[in-house]
């Protein structure tokens, strides 16, 4: 009899163990009426490393695979293509390039049978950008780790050495990217548009943000909805879907890309810094952290620093300065803390007793955020760019904390109403 392999679980961050579910749920609902498309092929059928990963996944080494059926449904490319065409039709605000890419979705090679074509494509695009940035600053990308998206809802992201595989793997629970997207969308809509049209301007002036949030209740409702779906149902996809106004498309892209690139770059950072190679000779399935306490924290900071550097370069390649590129990185930690704080709040806690989650393996989100903030001036030049990144992030910090105070107030209001209704019965 085969026993489950032993492994250490290494999340990207210290969380309260909430996971996500994929947004695309309807792949199986469509009739197969499109002309045939080229089939999906799997690296696990020809490459022993991917075969090894697939076996570990199947054996539950990374937890059960509750989302696997959704991913399997997407492997029917005819159904997927029809779903994507419907998606494009229903979301006219999507940038042209993305619309075209989605409508011409065809043959694809996936790492394993547990990858989703959509999520793997998303991950692959991020990897391409990080790899290009790494090559440009002279890092060795010849032996870039393997990577794959996995539907476990248990692993958010990790770097891992699989016994039997020749290279490390970077694994990403695709639901993490969904959360980044939905948070970036809800957060952005809290900023008022001060100039629309060709040149869109959004204000980060706290007074204007306050006015906008108070006069447009919908924006805060959407933010609460995504936090609530994430915290109470494990699935941000349970948040209500809504239309994104065209003026926000750019800022959502900037924030989301910063968040997602950082997630990928952080994991690559662990491999690049040699945190895993110290263990290559081992026979157990090793994931980070290697040790608890200070050494493990040091490695997280190290991976964060490499993540920061690569993300800034990758964003720069897309035409964004350090200030804009840094927003998503900073908000990534802010979003995790906001979700943790929401969980704390609805469990009856208050702000005074809330602590940014930390563990033996990971420093708190707040500590990681402070660390990166202190590093900005050492890695960004000219100095004006570094200053602009810090100034912008301090504005966003004020906005995030104001939004949190509103989230708390409204949640108390609704919880109070619910209690009153229950008492009245
Ligand atoms: Zn890490």
Percentage of residues in strands: 5-15%
Order of helices and strands: EHHHHEHEEEHEEHHHEHHHH
Total count of strands: 8
How many structural domains? Answer: 2
Note the quaternary state here.
single chain
Bound molecules: zinc ion
Weakly predicted, low-confidence segments: 1-36, 279-286
The number of helical elements comes to 13
Structural class: alpha/beta
What is the terminal separation in angstroms?
56 Å
What portion of residues is helical?
40-55%
Described by strand count, sense and barrel closure, the largest sheet is: 4 strands, mixed
Shape: globular
Strand order of the largest sheet: 3-5-4-8
Radius of gyration: 22 Å
What's the mean pLDDT score? 82
Entry keywords:
two-stranded parallel ribbon, single chain, binds zinc ion, 425 residues, globular, alpha/beta, 4-stranded mixed beta sheet, 55% helix, 2 domains
Could you give the topology of this structure?
Elements: E1 40-42, H1 48-58, H2 68-74, H3 77-90, H4 96-103, E2 108-110, H5 117-136, E3 146-150, E4 157-161, E5 169-173, H6 174-188, E6 193-195, E7 201-202, H7 206-215, H8 217-233, H9 249-272, E8 286-287, H10 294-317, H11 322-346, H12 365-379, H13 383-424
Parallel strand pairs: 1-2, 3-5
Antiparallel strand pairs: 4-5, 4-8, 6-7
Helix pairs in contact: 5-9, 5-10, 6-8, 6-9, 8-11, 8-13, 9-10, 9-11, 10-11, 10-12, 11-12, 11-13, 12-13
This protein binds zinc ion.
